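Below is a filled-in request sheet from our internal design queue. Each sheet records the structural input a requester submitted and the sequence that came back. We keep these sheets so that new team members can see what a complete request looks like end to end.

REQUESTER: design group, bay 2
PRIORITY: normal
MODE: inverse folding
CHAIN LENGTH: 291
BACKBONE (tokenized):
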């Protein structure tokens, strides 16, 4: 069925395609749905008389390569609807795969209340998904950037409101993940992180370079500085047999593998793929007692 809104969506998709947007039709439909407060599959139900000109204002923002999620104010991550905007990294589908790996491991773990640390939590995506999907878990999320932390605080509060069983089980900590959570040393069951991992000077799309916070992106000449810091913190935090999962760039699989060597106390280090079949996160098991 055609309607004014669907006609405008088709025109908008063509404009977004011209502007170099990767998924123009999807983005035009999601913007239309957000502006008119309906589901994406309900666009045909919007009467012509209800067409809202804010649609074209939002399409202009997207054509200028502002991220879709900053325009709608929301990012979906597993079963969560997170608030996002300027100052916080927009959670990505790749990270859902790593988080799913962690959730499966935690569900299988023979531990009454597994303790988890999410290093560099941003919007809170990983920590909150684990808290929501593994109700027995106690999740500590660390974030250094105050702007990002403000978004995380809102998302933590919304999660506790919608899933009251998470109250008192989700802890947000300010600070550098290199030196926080000392009180948990040697007791954590799983450390997970999607740290910054882009080599300084690498080329990124405008949505990333102009809108994701720099502290969420860049990490030294080879992009591995933060991953090395996560490895050091994981050694300190994990109990023997505890697990680590760290996201990295598609080209970094081989290099990141060697950040978790057996001689340091790691075992069963593996490269794991994302949904597109690219190396995306490394996992390993810590074998030593805390020193
Ligand atoms: C790539 S973003 C990931 C955010 C979130 N975990 C996600 O997957 O959507 C990395 C986050 O780590 C934070 N961060 C970077 N270095 C940090 C450090 N040394 N200590 C604490 N947080 C850090 C950044 O501010 C940013 O929010």
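RETURNED SEQUENCE:
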């Amino acid at each position: 069925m055609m309607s004014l809104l669907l006609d405008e969506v088709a025109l908008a998709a063509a404009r977004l395609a011209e502007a170099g947007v990767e998924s123009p039709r999807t983005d035009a439909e999601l913007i239309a749905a957000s502006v008119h407060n309906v589901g994406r599959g309900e666009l045909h139900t919007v009467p012509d008389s209800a067409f809202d000109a804010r649609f074209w204002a939002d399409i202009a923002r997207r054509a200028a390569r502002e991220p879709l999620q900053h325009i709608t104010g929301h990012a979906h991550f597993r079963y969560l609807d997170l608030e996002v905007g300027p100052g916080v990294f927009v959670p990505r589908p790749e990270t859902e795969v790593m988080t799913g790996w962690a959730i499966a491991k935690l569900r299988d773990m023979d531990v009454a209340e597994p303790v988890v640390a999410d290093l560099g939590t941003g919007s809170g995506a990983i920590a909150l998904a684990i808290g929501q999907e593994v109700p027995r878990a106690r999740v500590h999320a660390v974030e250094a950037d105050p702007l990002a932390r403000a978004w995380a605080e809102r998302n933590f509060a919304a999660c506790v409101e919608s899933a009251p069983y998470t109250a008192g089980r989700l802890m947000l900590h300010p600070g550098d993940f290199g030196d926080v959570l000392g009180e948990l040393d040697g007791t954590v069951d799983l450390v997970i992180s999607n740290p910054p991992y882009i080599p300084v000077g690498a080329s990124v799309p405008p949505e990333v370079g102009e809108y994701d916070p720099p502290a969420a992106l860049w990490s030294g000449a080879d992009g591995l500085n933060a991953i090395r810091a996560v490895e050091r913190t994981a050694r300190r935090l994990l109990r023997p047999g505890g697990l680590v999962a760290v996201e990295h760039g598609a080209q970094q699989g081989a290099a990141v593998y060697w950040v978790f060597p057996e001689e340091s106390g790691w075992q069963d280090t593996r490269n794991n793929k994302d949904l597109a079949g690219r190396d995306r996160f490394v996992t390993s098991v810590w074998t030593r007692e805390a020193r």
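SHEET NOTES:
- The chain has a mean pLDDT of 96.
- The pocket of S-adenosylmethionine is lined by residues 89, 91, 95, 120-123, 125-126, 142-145, 148, 176-178, 194-196, 215-216, 226 (CB under 6 Å).
FILED BY: M.R.
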